[in-house]
């Protein structure tokens, strides 16, 4: 499905939101949700809105594959959980820089985990 790393990165660089799809840990069905993200070099960061209580995050832990779609560019990728206060705080800072501290505070309620994805 992915066209190339460069076209995926170019597409990601133009958008503020992408759609991710994960497999439900109990239903086995594909679940898609829109999420904010931060692209930094070859790394894509996701911050679950309710931290470790976020359903899509729990699903990723159970089935560690994630499908991202940025309009016509799509890819199936391997997410890596980010844990630890210092590492998660670094991701939160990236989100505050991109989206603004007020919006991050408004929409995100728990900062105990994040996701990092190496783009292929």
SS-derived structural category = alpha+beta
- Counting structural domains, the number is 1
Number of H- or I-type helical stretches: 4
CATH topology: Pnp Oxidase, Chain A
Describe the fold and architecture.
The chain is an alpha+beta fold and 120 residues long. The protein has one domain (5-113): Electron Transport, Fmn-binding Protein, Chain A (Pnp Oxidase, Chain A, Roll), CATH 2.30.110.10. It is 33% helix and 34% strand. It has a seven-stranded antiparallel sheet with strand order 5-4-1-2-3-7-6, with helices on both faces. Helix 3 (85-99) crosses helix 4.
Please write out the topology.
Elements: H1 5-14, E1 17-23, E2 30-40, E3 43-46, H2 55-62, E4 66-70, E5 73-77, E6 79-82, H3 85-99, H4 101-107, E7 114-118
Antiparallel strand pairs: 1-2, 1-4, 2-3, 3-7, 4-5, 6-7
């Amino acid at each position: 499905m992915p066209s190339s790393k460069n076209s995926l990165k170019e597409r990601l660089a133009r958008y503020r939101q992408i759609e991710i799809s994960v497999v439900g840990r109990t239903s086995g069905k594909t679940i898609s949700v829109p999420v904010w993200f931060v692209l930094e070099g070859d790394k894509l960061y996701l911050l679950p809105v309710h931290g470790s209580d976020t359903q899509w995050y729990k699903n990723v832990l159970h089935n560690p594959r994630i499908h991202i779609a940025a309009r016509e560019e799509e890819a199936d990728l391997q997410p890596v959980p980010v844990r630890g206060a210092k590492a998660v705080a670094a991701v939160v800072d990236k989100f505050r820089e991109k989206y603004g501290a007020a919006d991050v505070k408004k929409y995100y309620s728990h900062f105990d985990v994040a996701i990092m994805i190496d783009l292929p």
